[in-house]
Each structure stands twice: as structure tokens, then as C-alpha cells.
Specification:
- The structure holds two protein chains of two kinds.
- By secondary structure, chain A is mainly α.
- In chain A, about 75% of the residues lie in helices and about 0% in strands.
- The chains are: A mainly alpha, B alpha/beta.
């Protein structure tokens, strides 16, 4: 009995400051930001040519002791690192949005067919949009991947690429949305998402079947996924798209929290459900679509990084969860990028298998740790 | 504070509700003495303050304010361009400080009526006025400051805390980042202590029992500080003591906090004991409203739930096999 009272008193005392774990959350954000920075530096330093960390910092101001290091850092590794960080953060946030809207832990850009939608956008642009001309000119892009295959497209080309990819993912999202209106159960929606995904990928297969061999090879290399294909002059397009997605999400953060309970609940506490949901889905498709356009379909991050963020922060509140998810996603992507460039014989390993290889064990172990700690609490 | 319905005690008509009511109180009282301070801490039940309605002041000519009014309202849903009308000619006045219970068999249209009143679906015809204003002309944000609803929800979010859930009630008042002011925090704390859940503030919602979750949801609705509360089957999935507790909580909200409460329920006996007004929708989707025991004596409840094998017993206020 007395322990019960003590417990109550303690809880009451904790409750008076109302934001019980804010210090812990702040520390967590700081730690994650620190590891993102560290991983970013390592990502630049490690690769087929190893550059000492100090020299990395120096070469950022073009003062490296060897001029070729400056070139490597600024032309190749810096854009790759920035792409990895942005893609990781963006995909993680997109996954978080979808998981919250559908109230389903399995929802993610790829499991809902949004990745496939982006692929079809890109495929249509590549195969049908032959009149763009620049496609074939980028034969050197084979082997490296990403949007490099769109070679020397004028700025309009990148915009087109993003638009095509985002439109593809938005189209799939709208279909999913219509389905989710019609069917209450989220499991149905997920199954439908998978089916729509199959549908779009079969359309892509048909396009590939009738495409010229060169384009097919370009397209296939895009599907492997890589952070290395984005060049310095293309980075701003990706950055703007991701910022746009994040800004829309941040403006709807209240709605995102309310959707955790249910849409009807959100509506009774003054959220314009349809508008908010549409905006959030548009944000998710911009994020997933633009990243897929530049880096290829990257499957693992969208579903796994939000879970890692939840397990780390132990919060449901998106105002805390969102930055943590973004940072966690960036960490995973950077780590995967470092590992993918570790083999010294020149070529990069494909990013998708690496992400799943390093990510899955980490997250599985997190779940186990959480189980253990919750048992301790209950004892 | 809460002028009672003048129809509640009519001289000459036997009062069949009160003895049952006292019995309930007696049962709860003995439980409290046994449980001691812990029970009080858990439920926040303030002893000494009676929930019995205050004696009627017949000299007062003042009628309670009408919160919501419906005239020839018809409810239903749209299927494409087709209009499916479920019930029509609904007429009621929901007065301030009244506990209104809505009863009726499954499929009669209780939930549809509640959703229409809550503004979640448009009326199919007639007028529905909230504070004298047409409900369809009230914006979603404004509506959330006038009506708070508790619908049965399955909350599957692992890390959502009780405090955070109750703070959702302040959504209509906070800025785009949901920054809580001192006033907001005060309202949340008060709402939590109103339902006796203040010691659960930092627990996660998923660790609570069904009864505790229901109380937290009610606290959230209270934190929304609206004049009208709507509870949709607040006692579903609850055990018998929790059901009685929810009804006592409902009484407290009306008698002490002065809210108007509309609740839809299958607990006809509890509704008869606690409500100031009873609304009945029968199997033929006909709507009737009135003082609980007047409705009970008129046979409307029996007719509403009309089944060959079951009959409503007016004297015990419960259903019996024929």
C-alpha cells in the first residue's frame, strides 16, 4: 500500500513540470545530431581513396595538402554525403507520415506502392520521353547510377524528373487514398497498396520490355539505388523538394498527432481532416518521389527509420518524433553509404542490400531491449 | 445553478426511480469506506458533495438556456446522389445543465443521430441549431470549442501518454505548434482530477484498462471546455462497476460542472436512474423525448425494444424474458 502511495506521489511530482522527459529528448536530439555530423565526416573521409579527417576539413576551404583531395571531396564525396543525409531524413519522415496517417506500422513509401509509382513516373519519362534527347547522351552514366543517367539535361530536365517521379508517387497515393476512403480497414488498404505496387511494376516491366537496350540498362542501374549519382548542380533541386515536403509536414504537425488516435477524433477536436490528410500525403509523395527520382527506389529506410526513432525517443508526439526520425534516417543512410564505399576496388556496392543488412539487426535488437526494459518497469 | 426539469417529480405518480438510485449509492458508499484513501485517490470521488439534483425551485420562472435545438430534423446518409433517410421528424431541445440519455435498439439510428448532432455528418433535412446557429454554418474549429465528443476508439499508439491524450482537448485553443499556455495546462490538470486520473498523467494510454481509458477520454472531452458533451456508448466493453462509475462521472459533469451531456447507451436501467431527459429511437426509427419515468410509464421503451421474447419491466427499470 505504501509503495503504491509513493508511486503516486512520485508520478504527481513528475507531472507538475508536465514535460517530464524534455531533458532526455534534448540530449537524444543532440546525440543524434552529433552522430550525423561524425558520420558525415567519415563518409567524406572513407572510400577508395582515404583522406585524413583533418584534410577533409581543410579541403572544405580548398586548403588540402593535395589538390586532388579537394577535388574528390568537393566534386564527388560532398554531394554524395549530402544526398545520403537528405535522402535518409526525407524517406524516414515520409515513412513516419504514412505510418501515422494509416495508423499502421507497416505503412511505408514502398509498401504502399509509392516507390513503384515513382518508378513508373521515371520509366515513362525515360522510355516515352525519348524526345528529351539528352537521355542517350549520358552513356557514361552507366555503372554509376542515379540521375547521372539523365546526363546533361538542362535544369528543366531535373525539374521534369522530380515532377515525373512525384506525379507517379502522388498518383499511386491518390489511388490508395480513394481505396482507404472506401475500405475502413487499414489491412485492406495495405493489401491494395501492395497490389497497386505490383500493377505499376508490371507496367514498368512492359515499358522495359519494349525499350531500347541502352535505356533498359540505364533504367536498371537506376533501380539499384545509389546516393552517388547526384551532382553538385543537381543538389539544390533535391534540397528544395525535401525542404518543401518538410515544411508542409511541419505545418500539419498538429493534425499528424491527432491522426494517431483516429480521423473522427481529429475531426471532433477541430482538425480539417480531408485538407490535412491531403496535404500530408502530398508532402509524403514529394519527399518519397523526389528522393526516388535521384537515388532510385530505396526500400528499407522509410519503414525502419521511424520505428528506430520511436524506440529511441519513446514518444508518440510528432513534434519530438519528427526531428528524431529525420536524424535517425540520416544516420542510417550515411552509415550505409560509408559501408557501400568501403571496398577499395573502386565500384560502389548497391545501397539497398547494405541498408537492410545493417539496419535490420540494429532495429531488431532495439525491440528486444525495449521488451526487456518494459519488463523491468513492470516488476 | 442547474434548474432541474420540473417534470422530474410529479406529485401523485409513484417514484420508481429513486429507490434504485439510493441502492446504487449505498453499494458504492460501502465500497469506498472499505477502500479507504486509496479508493478516493483513484477515483477522485469527493465525499460529502451530493450528486442528487438540487431541490426544484418552483418559484423560479427562469427556464434553462437551450444549447441545441432540432426541428423536423431528418438524419441519414448520402450514397452518391441518393439520399438514404434513416429517421425523420426529430424534434428536441437540449437544455443547459441536462443529462440526456439516448436509448434505442441496435440499428435504430442512435449513432447516426449523435454524429449528426456532433456535426460529423450533415443533416438530411430540417434544422439543427447549435447555440441558435445552423450547425452546417459553424466552422470545424469553432465547433470543436462548442461540442466535445467521446466515441469508442482503439488507441494503438504505444507511447502516447495520458497527459498528451488529454492535452488533445486543448487543440481548438492552441497555436499551430500546439504550445500549451498556463491556462491550457491548468485545464488539462483540472480535467484529469475531475475524472480522478491525475496520478495516471505520465502513464501510457496503452497500459490502461478499458475503464481507465474511457475516463481519460472523458477527461480529454472535459479539457475541451465545451458547453455540450456527447458520449457514444461510454460503457461499452466495461465491467459493471466501471459502468456505474462512468454514469456517476457523467452525473458529476452535469451537476457540478454544469455541462450539458448527451450520451447514447444500452444501459437503459442506469439511464433511467441518472438522466434528466430520455430520448428514445425505436425500431421503426421514430424519435420521442421526455422525462425518463414519463417515457418509461408511457411504454415507449418497451415498444422501442420490442422483441417477442423480451419485455421491459417498468417497475424494476430492466428488461426481462417474457
Amino acid at each position: 500500500m505504501s509503495t503504491y502511495k509513493d508511486y503516486n506521489n512520485r508520478i504527481n511530482k513528475e507531472m507538475t513540470d508536465n514535460q517530464p522527459n524534455s531533458a532526455r529528448q534534448g540530449l537524444l536530439v543532440a546525440c543524434l545530431a552529433g552522430s550525423v555530423l561524425l558520420l558525415a565526416l567519415l563518409d567524406i573521409a572513407l572510400g577508395s581513396v582515404r583522406i585524413p579527417l583533418l584534410e577533409v576539413l581543410k579541403s572544405l576551404s580548398s586548403k588540402a595538402s593535395r589538390p586532388e583531395w579537394t577535388t574528390i571531396v568537393l566534386v564527388f564525396r560532398m554531394p554524395k554525403m549530402l544526398t545520403a543525409a537528405m535522402a535518409g531524413a526525407g524517406l524516414s519522415v515520409a515513412g513516419l507520415i504514412l505510418q501515422s496517417i494509416f495508423r499502421n506500422p507497416l505503412a511505408a513509401p514502398d509498401s504502399l506502392g509509392i516507390g513503384a509509382g515513382a518508378s513508373i513516373g521515371v520509366a515513362v519519362l525515360m522510355f516515352a520521353g525519348g524526345s528529351l534527347g539528352a537521355l542517350g547522351a549520358s552513356a557514361q552514366g552507366i555503372g554509376t547510377q542515379g540521375s547521372a543517367l539523365l546526363g546533361n539535361l538542362p535544369p528543366l530536365g531535373y525539374t521534369l524528373l522530380i515532377i515525373a517521379s512525384s506525379t507517379g508517387s502522388a498518383a499511386v497515393l491518390i489511388i490508395i487514398l480513394l481505396i482507404s476512403r472506401r475500405f475502413e480497414q487499414v489491412v485492406t488498404v495495405l493489401i491494395m497498396g501492395l497490389l497497386v505496387g505490383y500493377l505499376t511494376s508490371s507496367l514498368v516491366s512492359l515499358l522495359v520490355y519494349f525499350g531500347s537496350p541502352q535505356k533498359v540498362q540505364l533504367y536498371l542501374s537506376w533501380t539499384y539505388g545509389s546516393f552517388g549519382g547526384v551532382r553538385t548542380n543537381e543538389l539544390p533541386y533535391l534540397a528544395i523538394a525535401i525542404c518543401l515536403g518538410l515544411i508542409i509536414t511541419l505545418r500539419e504537425i498538429k493534425a499528424l498527432n491527432a491522426f494517431l488516435v483516429s480521423e473522427r477524433f481529429a475531426s471532433t477536436i477541430g482538425i480539417r481532416v480531408r485538407t490535412s490528410r491531403t496535404k500530408l500525403l502530398v508532402a509524403a509523395s514529394i519527399l518519397a518521389g523526389s528522393i526516388t527520382a535521384f537515388c532510385g527506389p530505396i526500400a528499407f529506410l522509410g519503414i525502419a527509420a521511424p520505428h528506430a526513432a520511436r524506440l529511441l525517443s519513446r514518444k508518440a508526439d510528432h513534434r519530438i518524433l519528427l526531428p528524431i526520425a529525420a536524424l535517425t534516417g540520416a544516420c542510417f543512410a550515411l552509415l550505409a553509404d560509408i559501408i557501400s564505399s568501403l571496398p577499395t576496388y573502386g565500384s560502389l556496392l548497391p545501397i539497398n542490400p547494405i541498408l537492410a543488412l545493417i539496419g535490420s539487426p540494429i532495429i531488431i535488437s532495439m525491440f528486444f531491449r525495449r521488451n526487456k526494459s518494459s519488463m523491468e518497469v513492470s516488476q | 445553478m442547474n434548474p432541474r426539469h420540473p417534470m422530474r417529480h410529479i406529485p401523485g405518480i409513484p417514484d420508481i426511480i429513486e429507490p434504485e438510485f439510493k441502492k446504487t449509492k449505498g453499494f458504492e458508499g460501502s465500497e469506498t469506506t472499505e477502500g479507504g484513501s486509496r479508493q478516493t485517490a483513484l477515483t477522485g470521488r469527493d465525499e460529502g458533495k451530493s450528486l442528487r439534483p438540487p431541490p426544484i425551485d418552483y418559484s423560479s420562472k427562469e427556464m434553462p438556456k437551450t444549447i441545441m435545438e432540432a426541428n423536423d430534423l431528418s438524419i441519414g446518409w448520402r450514397q452518391g446522389s441518393k439520399l438514404n433517410i434513416l429517421a425523420q421528424d426529430i424534434k428536441f431541445k437540449a437544455k443547459q445543465g441536462y443529462l440526456i440519455a439516448l436509448v434505442g435498439p441496435n440499428g435504430a439510428g442512435k449513432s447516426t443521430l449523435l454524429k449528426t448532432i456532433a456535426g460529423l455528418q450533415p443533416p438530411c433535412g430540417g434544422s439543427l441549431l447549435l447555440m441558435g446557429k445552423d450547425i452546417s454554418r459553424i466552422s470545424i474549429e469553432e465547433r470543436a470549442q462548442l461540442i466535445a465528443c467521446v466515441f469508442p476508439e482503439q488507441i494503438e499508439t504505444g507511447f502516447l501518454t495520458v497527459w498528451e491524450l488529454v492535452a488533445f482537448g486543448r487543440y481548438p485553443y492552441t497555436n499551430a505548434r500546439h504550445r500549451l499556455t498556463e491556462e491550457d495546462r491548468k485545464q488539462v490538470t483540472e480535467a484529469l482530477s475531475m475524472v480522478g486520473m491525475q496520478s495516471f498523467a505520465n502513464r501510457t494510454v496503452s497500459s490502461l484498462s478499458d475503464g481507465e481509458r474511457q475516463k481519460v477520454q472523458i477527461a480529454r472531452a472535459v479539457a475541451q471546455s465545451t458547453a455540450l458533451l456527447i458520449f457514444d456508448e461510454p460503457t461499452a466493453f466495461l465491467d459493471a462497476p466501471s459502468r456505474i462509475e462512468v454514469f456517476r462521472l457523467a452525473e458529476r459533469l452535469v451537476r457540478q460542472a454544469g455541462k450539458t451531456l448527451l450520451l447514447c447507451t444500452h444501459e437503459v436501467d442506469l439511464a433511467l436512474k441518472t438522466a434528466d431527459e430520455l430520448w428514445v429511437i425505436d425500431r421503426a426509427h421514430r424519435f420521442s423525448a421526455g422525462a425518463p419515468f414519463v417515457i418509461a410509464h408511457s411504454g415507449a421503451i418497451g415498444k422501442a425494444f420490442d422483441l417477442p421474447s423480451v419485455a421491459f419491466d417498468v417497475f424494476s427499470g430492466t428488461f426481462r424474458a417474457r
